Amino acid sequence: MTNNPHFPMRLDFAESIATQLQLSSPPPSALRAAFDDTRSRLNLTSNRSDTLDVEPSQWGAVVSRCSEISKSHESLSVLVKDCIAVEGMTMTAGSRTFRHLSDTDAPVVKELRRSGLHIHGTANMDSFAYGVTGRQSELGAVRNPVSSAHIPGGSSSGCAAATAAGVVDAGLTTDTGGSTRIPAACCGITGYKPTSGLLSSEGVLPLAPSFDTVGFCTRTVRDLLTVLRPLNMVDIDLELPSKSHQPSYAISGYKLGIPRSCAQQVHTAFPDIEQTLAGVDVSTHEVSLIPPSLSIPQILTAYSVVVAKEFIGVLTGENRHGTLWGSFRNALDSAREHGLESSVFDETFQTTVGLITAMDGSPVAAARSVIETFDAHVTRVLNGVDVIALPTLGCGVPRLDSEVDIRALLRYTIVANLTGTPAISIPTRDSGPIPMSLQLIAPHGDDASLLRFAAELSIE
Predict the structure, then answer these.
(1) Are 99 and 331 in contact (CB under 8 A)?
(2) DSSP assignment of 164-225
């Protein structure tokens, strides 16, 4: 099979990955053979012209509405990301060829219904959740309702856009490297990634099971707490904060860590954070999130290698995950038979998988070693503070007419996915059409402290 002319083999990129992981790159001939093998396994096509049987509406966000008509004024409405099973709905995962008719709700959706929440429908997303811009859905790009000149972020783009636009009260999302918090920051709302495993991932089409986490986006922290309380998933023993914009003594005695490498960005997002917190006996401490033996490019490379390895396993049926896997696999087999869109699986993905194949998996072992070192270091840092504050994005919200630096978008959000810790992105202050965003991370399992701190700092 010949290479796609739009996505040629990137020998320079393959060599860069090997260098970051301190490995020797294989000969170009081996890389090219592995690259072609990847394309064959996925049956990649380009420029498909199939007629879609869904037409996303309302900011390009809503793929399908539930058939339920009645909704009490008291119940909150939730839009479900279209990689999470909703009974009676056809899951698309943002793909033209993937179709999975769900005959049951995912456990987390069942729990939402039991809690009295109204399931509004399913939301558009970057295809197979492999993207962070909100512009990579084969069903059509999602539009940012806060600023039409900027990307909405992804991959939970539809949930974020519909929530920001007031179409629904909340979005049920997934987050593998920032896919809840990135679109929340781009759309000026709140995005919450719980401690990994706190919400069941059964009935969720996986991307990279090592990092996949089910989460929520809401307009405010107050809304998030309202959604979470009936679920009883977190012991939130605090009253909703007043709207005085001043923290209370609910976080008295807390220690806040601010990484020295991004302290300026934190103070840009929240200029008077130290003075504000000092008034309620919260101390701030300088911390370092990157261990001396690693660099940010190494960590980002390690993350991308493991994601690529696990994602190719999902697409080809080698990575079985969850009780609904059998029916997901049938839908994935059918999608591959029709041809997966090459525009989704770009040259970086294909080259990464090709390198892994050509080197018999050694990049994955090296990547996991990097992640283990990073995880251990962050755990030690979090043993000394209650919460860490850092930017949500490693750049400003990208404009549609500019080139998007994917690694900059992921730079700070992947911390919580690599470590399994809870994290939340909250809007802090107005800075044009899209508010500034601040991210908070807490120790593994301490979602209550994270939410308490977020509630006290949020501006609503």
Answers:
(1) yes
(2) HTTS-SEEEEEESSSTTHHHHHHHTSEEEEPSTTSS--TTB--S-TTT-EEEEEESSHHHHH
Q: Which residue has the tokens 């084969």?
A: 138
DSSP letter for 139, please: T
Contact 219, 145 (CB under 8 A): no
Cα distance between the two ends of the chain: 55
Tokens of 131: 């993207």
Dist. CA 361–CA 358, nearest whole Å: 8
By CB neighbour count within 10 A (0-12 exposed, 13-18 middle, 19+ buried), where does 449 fall?
Answer: middle
Separation in Å, CA 138 to CA 50, 244, 275, 311, 444? 11, 44, 47, 18, 35
> Which class for 11: exposed (0-12), middle (13-18), buried (19 or more C-beta within 10 A)?
middle
Please tell me the distance from the alpha carbon of residue 416 to that of residue 450, in angstroms, as a whole number: 12
pTM across the whole model: 0.93
What is the percentage of the chain residues whose pLDDT exceeds 70? 88
Taking phi first (over 0 means left), then psi (-120 to 50 degrees means alpha), and beta for anything else, what does residue 328 get? alpha
361: phi > 0 → left, psi -120 to 50 → alpha, else beta; which? left
* Greatest extent of the chain over all pairs of C-alpha atoms, in Å: 66
> d(Cα 400, Cα 424) in Å, to the nearest integer?
25
Tokens matching residue 257: 């860590």
pLDDT in tens, 38-96: 888 888 765 444 445 566 777 888 888 876 544 444 689 999 999 999 999 999 999 98
CA–CA separation, 167 vs 12, rounded Å? 45
Amino acid at 223: D
State residue 206 phi and psi, 5-degree precision: -75, 155
Per-residue pLDDT tens for 153-183?
999 999 999 999 999 999 999 999 999 999 9
Q: What CA–CA distance (Å, rounded) separates 182 from 126? A: 13
77 three-class SS: strand
Tell me which residue of 383, 378, 412, 381 sits closest to 395, measured CA to CA: 412
Alpha-carbon span 336 to 315, nearest angstrom: 8
Give every CB contact of residue 49 below 8 A, 6+ residues apart in sequence.
Answer: none
Strand-pair partners of 259: 287
C-beta separation of 430 from 443 below 8 A? no
Q: Would you say residue 245 has pLDDT above 70?
A: no
Q: What angle do CA 268, 178, 277 make, to 5 degrees?
A: 35
Model confidence at 300, in pLDDT bands (50, 70, 90)?
very high
Handedness of CA 87, 88, 93, 94 (dihedral sign): negative
Per-residue pLDDT averaged across 125-133, rounded? 95
